[in-house]
Design a protein that fits this description.
By secondary structure, the chain is of the alpha+beta class. The chain is 30% helix and 33% strand. The chain has 6 helices and 17 strands. A hairpin with a 2-residue loop joins strand 11 and strand 12. Helix 2 packs across helix 5. The N and C termini lie far apart (65 Å).
């Protein structure tokens, strides 16, 4: 009898759990890592399209600021405007251009809405994952309102797709012929598209190179063929900044010298000088750059 009562109680509890689950729905939420991916994608788009500046703001589904980045050359008020655009996009679940166009078409009464949650200027878009609005991204201070919106869309698209898309992205596949062709000349296989924080290079070297320092990127090197004398640490000789966050020099004073060969892996942290000092014939190696 006690056994039967136990079964009855278990069934009753199970029914209560099922009922409670039916009354509560799961909601997706934007994580801090996801917000950073949105900003990274927008910044990457700005660099590839020579955008002269801009502030990128990301808010959660309640309009609360999660992350913000101000590019060089952006006017001081850009931060507040970009936050307002992002907040408007998420609270109204519409791109802010919709409201700018409505006002242009004569419905000027909308400008009476409180500034605290309504910025009807092009450049804000909702972030949508699996059909749910999980946040908003706003951009202000690029070359034009159109470019503000383009940067915002590029950021929001970094999370488009499935729920896993908030932390993952589409699989990249490179058939062996494409990989072989990349190694033949040394080429980038994956360039960090979609705001991802890594790149993959199929590198080929036949002679010594310049000393290098990547101030943002760590290099993970895996040697496939050949060998080389590789120097890490020390001081770069005649170092010059050739582009943002990239320094080159003629050699390295001091540091640690080692021979790297087929099958070896070496990880060079960002900010660490490194140099292929000598190369014994052709060397092929993967470089995964992680930022």
């Amino acid at each position: 009898m006690n056994f039967i009562k136990s079964i009855a109680v278990a069934l009753m509890l199970l029914g209560m759990v099922i009922t409670s689950q039916a009354q509560v729905s799961e909601k997706k939420s934007l994580t801090l890592d996801g917000a950073k991916r949105v900003i990274a994608a927008a910044v990457d788009y700005a660099k590839r399209n020579n955008a002269p500046g801009g502030v990128i703001a990301v808010v959660d589904e309640g309009g609360n600021l999660m992350a913000l980045e101000r590019l060089d050359g952006t006017f001081a008020a850009g931060a507040n405007i970009s936050i307002g655009k992002a907040r408007t996009a998420v609270l109204f679940k519409r791109p802010t251009k919709v409201f700018e166009d409505i006002i242009k078409n004569g419905r000027t009464a909308m400008v009476a809405l409180p500034d605290a949650f309504f910025t009807p200027l092009q450049g804000g878009v909702p972030i949508i994952v699996d059909g749910e609005v999980v946040g908003g991204v706003g951009v202000s201070g690029a070359a034009s309102a159109q470019q503000d919106e383009e940067l915002a869309i590029a950021g929001a698209n970094a999370l488009a797709g499935s729920a896993e898309g908030m932390m993952g992205a589409a699989v990249s596949y490179y058939p062996k012929d494409q990989v072989a062709a990349a190694f033949a000349k040394g080429a980038v296989l994956f360039g960090g598209e979609g705001g991802r924080n890594y790149m993959v290079h199929a590198s080929h070297r036949e002679k010594a190179g310049m000393a290098e320092v990547h101030t943002l990127d760590a290099d993970i090197i895996y040697v496939l063929e050949g060998s080389a004398t590789f120097v890490t640490g020390g001081t770069v000789v005649a170092g010059k900044t050739i582009e943002p966050n990239e320094i080159r020099g003629t050699a390295i004073n001091g540091g640690e010298t080692r021979t790297i060969a087929k099958g070896d892996v070496i990880i060079v942290p960002n900010g660490t000088p490194h140099w292929f000092k000598e190369v014994s014939g052709p060397i092929n190696y993967y470089v995964v750059k992680v930022r």
